Amino acid sequence: MSYLTLSLTLIFVLIPIILSKTLNLGLEKDTIIATVRSIIQLLAVGYILQYVFDAEHFIYLSLMILLMIAAATQNARRKGASIRGITWKLIVTFIFVEVLTQGILLGLGIIPPTPQFIIPISGMVIGNSMVLGILFLNRFTAEVEDHQDETELILTLGGTPKQAIHRQLINSIKASTIPTIESQKTIGLVQLPGMMSGQIIAGADPVQAVQFQLLILFILLTTAVVTSIMLGFLSYPTLFNERMQFLKFESK
């Protein structure tokens, strides 16, 4: 695709801007900002990846993954600002998920140990983990705030912090993972996933493209569940003090 052809795709940006202006939705500024940022960020990443792929050096690979984790943490931490130490909890979660998935993929020889495979898959893993982290933190902070009286009552009756927060924790984990599970039920029927579509457009064998897409789907399923559970169990103890008393909670 040439830059001239790419410029024609801006028609798909003009359509929502025109509709927003016509209906007074007020989305024009955000749409333009999002478009400009996506162009700059993706082009920059494209040139960086080209350099990393050509260099094939472990240090550059590691720096790229650390940059992804840092960006994901910065974005997700805003949703959990009410939880003490949420920044390091997110970092630990993202690193664990990345090490777990890449350890299995490389350890079992499912993918070759090259930047061309590791970086794109890491991006999908960390990006999905970030989204799931945001979904979990949104739901968890809302659940905790809405059930503060119930939590304090269970503690008053002799319950432990884990028992007092159990229902809110489980509900939040389930709510954040359901979209991933439900979307996989209709993969191939309602939608053709991005990775599979990209490979097919590039001329890859459709069956081979399906195999790679299944790999990604299974990885994202693990990512979703592990992220929500790990973040949940790292977060809930900070809602209580050393005397097992519930700290008044107010989401931000």
UniProtKB/TrEMBL annotation:
One Gene Ontology cellular component annotation held by this UniProt entry: plasma membrane
Pfam families from the UniProt entry:
UPF0014
Transmembrane segments annotated in the record for this chain: 6-27, 34-52, 58-76, 88-111, 117-137, 214-236
What UniProt keywords are attached to this protein's entry? Membrane, Transmembrane, Transmembrane helix
Which membrane topology describes this protein? Answer: Multi-pass membrane protein
> Where is it mainly found?
membrane
Where found?
Membrane
Transmembrane helix as a keyword of this entry, yes or no, is yes
Q: Which InterPro entries match?
A: UPF0014_fam (IPR005226)
| Record-stated family | Belongs to the UPF0014 family.
**Which PANTHER family does this one have?**
PROTEIN ALUMINUM SENSITIVE 3, UPF0014 INNER MEMBRANE PROTEIN YBBM-RELATED
- The molecule here is called Putative ABC transport system permease protein
